[in-house]
Specification:
The chain is an alpha+beta fold. The protein has three helices and five strands.
């Protein structure tokens, strides 16, 4: 984590490999994240770091406020073991859009462009 962000966050971090199109149920490159709802609820003022392995090297980092996740909870797939299940497009016109549900949320505004330069 310290190599990716430049510091160790106190908020939860979840990592996804880069799923090639042939591995993804949408047949498009994607990242897959499962976020336990209880962790989001217990820290509404905090954030969740979503780290997606980049195609070539490094990581894409999304710093998502838990308040955003709670406010939009009904717009996510939450049917599996009390998790928010995100299937986020890794490339193309829908990059950073959750494609797990029909009206997918756009996570692009949460991308840290230069993670090592950005702290809480």
């Amino acid at each position: 984590m310290k190599k990716v962000l430049g510091y160790m966050p106190s908020d939860p971090v979840v990592v996804s490999k880069f799923f090639e199109a042939k591995e993804s149920w949408t047949r498009e490159p994607a990242w897959w994240f499962d976020l336990p709802i209880r962790k989001v609820k217990n820290n509404r003022q905090g954030v969740y770091y979503l780290l997606g392995k980049a195609r070539k090297s490094g990581f894409v980092v999304l710093k998502v406020p838990n308040e955003f996740l709670m406010r939009n909870l009904r717009k996510f797939d939450t049917r599996y073991r009390d998790n928010i299940r995100l299937h986020i497009a890794a490339e193309g016109a829908n990059r950073f859009v959750d494609e797990r549900v029909k009206s997918g949320m756009d996570f692009s505004r949460f991308e840290l462009k230069h993670p090592k330069d950005t702290r809480n």
